[in-house]
Amino acid sequence: MSEQLEPVGVIGVGWVGLVTAACFAELGHEVIARDILPEKVEALSRGEITIHEPGLEDLLRRNAGRITFTTDMSELLEGARLMFVCVDTPPTYSGDADLSRVRAVVQELPEGSDHVLIMKSTVPAGTGESIRRDMPELSYVSCPEFLKEGTAVEDFMHPDRVVVGSDPGDEAAADAVEALYKPLGGAILRTDVASAEMIKLASNAFLATKISFINEIANVCEEVGADVGQVAKGMGLDERIGTSFLRAGIGYGGSCFPKDVSALKMLAGNTGYHFQLLTSVIEVNELQKRRVVGKLEKHLGSLIGKRVALLGLAFKPDTDDMREASSLVLAARLQGEGAEVVAYDPVASERAAELLGSVEMATSALEALDGADAAVLVTEWAEFKDLDWSVAAERMTRPLVVDGRNFLDPEAIVSAGFEYEGIGRQSSSDRRISASS
Fold this sequence. Notes:
By secondary structure, this protein is of the alpha/beta class. Helix content is about 45%, strand content about 15%. The chain has a six-stranded parallel sheet, sandwiched between helices. α1 crosses α3 and α12 (about 275-300) packs across α13 (about 325-335). The longest helix has about 30 residues, at about 195-225. About 45% of the residues are buried.
């Protein structure tokens, strides 16, 4: 089968690149994956991966014979015509996307190359035009990724849509990219390059807007005694709105939403347009993380000397990614208020320890809760729902939980002996006051 399929090159084997390489190998392609870090290439060549993504390790092991990891760009150029660029484009101090890694890749391409450069990295609209201006003979296709951490393999193998952006003269290159994805069965949208680049930024900005919107609604719900879960359910039944991304909590994080929202805001600003809505989306998200401190102070008063346990550190479950995680802001804010912070995460504790040097790391949820004055559920790992909360209540100095993801069953938590605070819900003390009045 692999002899009948065109080889695929992948440049950059971080999270996106590694998933891309493994999934194309699963489809039967020979894959040459190149990275500039020798230690990463050596580890991957030995079958060792350092990121947590469900299903990825099995995929790499099953297709080890189809994937070659290398630091040699010439090896990739010789072995594959279709090259996916999957390098990081982190924000600069100005908030613009740092395209230095993308530029470095382009500079390594030989003059008159017949390769197809397929941009999987998230880049601002206009990047493709800029690259083509510098290398007019280059075949260039924009193919943004829409993978979600924790379900990336499933997302790749069963996409809801694949966007293939090309400009006049590159139709054959776009046809080749479309052919790669056609076996997956998702809808394929052909656009120009600038539109493809904008689709990725606009999609993430819209989803982030939904999150900030429902968090604002949650804050109002707390003031008027409504339940944001019921409000979101009622909203979501309207097919024009839908239910996805209407879960109130302590804000979004990760590698995509914060970066892409900021990049789109900066892109608009660089053209002279003030994107007021995204300015508010960012502000709401930052403030939401800090509302937890107020909820703790409502019950504990001053946090000086209080021991607060953070349950979950990664920005979402089923990943060890700590980029822009709410736990980072929350831990720093709690320590700033004088609290003693202890934390536990099933997967991300090692990565988190490097970022939260003064935070005590526990090896289990119950260990983190031992002697704590309060617990904050930051990441909705399944094991926290299955925790014996009655035992946890006995081990805590004060059984108080702030459910930052509305993940736990309030009645069950209260029955276990806890005071309960959610997001956009009445607290257990508020319920008692309402019931007695």
